Amino acid sequence: MKTRLVSFNIYLCAVALFLAAGCGMGGLDSKKEYTVLHVFLEARNGAKTGAQLVHVVGTPMYVESEPILTEADVNSAKLIDYPDGTYAVQVTFSDHGMIQLDMTTGSSKRLNLVIYALFPPKGFKEPKGEDSFSENKTATGQARISCWSATPIRSEITSGVLVFTPDASHAEAERIVRGLNNMVAAIKKMGQ
Question: Is 65 helix (H, G, I), strand (E, B) or coil?
């Protein structure tokens, strides 16, 4: 079980280094925060199909090996603060993302959308140790840089807007949103 998680996290470590370095993708400014967002579909019969095992708020879940949506499909993100003190992240997807979300949620009721956010701080350096990301802390015990969240699919999402409660503090959720909007701007700038 652990090897699947480790191999999955090695991929995410590479993405973090790519983002933190700000090189290789001419549009990334190393002085800004960026967020990688991957939306996965929970895998049916996960252990039998070779799906990836992840831990969402301490609960093991199997997810399909490829995300159905990424930060490249995002138009914008915002943090919603509710009167009772709770909060959620609202992500509005592009036309492609809206169609993908509609098709996936229409055919997958009773499963979960599993959301991964990687939000390293500016100047982030990869922690030592191959399993450091799964612990959600850097090697020096600094603040978390990633989180997994899940939201059940109760009905088709035709609007292209996904609202979910992240397994993150309010400050981390703000950082996720800020980094995601910076990423969207950078992707648009690179596409010009």
Answer: coil
Q: Which of 170, 125, 123 is nearest to 147 (CA)?
A: 170
User: What class has domain 2-191?
Assistant: alpha beta
Residue type, 23: C
Q: What is the largest CA-CA distance in the chain?
A: 44
What is the pLDDT at residue 115? 97
Q: Enter the DSSP assignment of 42.
A: B
SS3 164: strand
How far is it, in rounded angstroms, from Cα 179 to Cα 163?
A: 17
Predicted confidence band at 49 (pLDDT cuts at 50, 70, 90)? confident
Could you tell me the CA-to-CA distances from 73 to 35, 37, 55, 94 in Å, in that order?
13, 9, 24, 5
Q: Which amino acid type is present at position 133?
A: F
What's the pLDDT tens digit per position in 96-144? Answer: 999 999 999 999 988 999 999 999 877 666 656 544 444 444 444 556 7
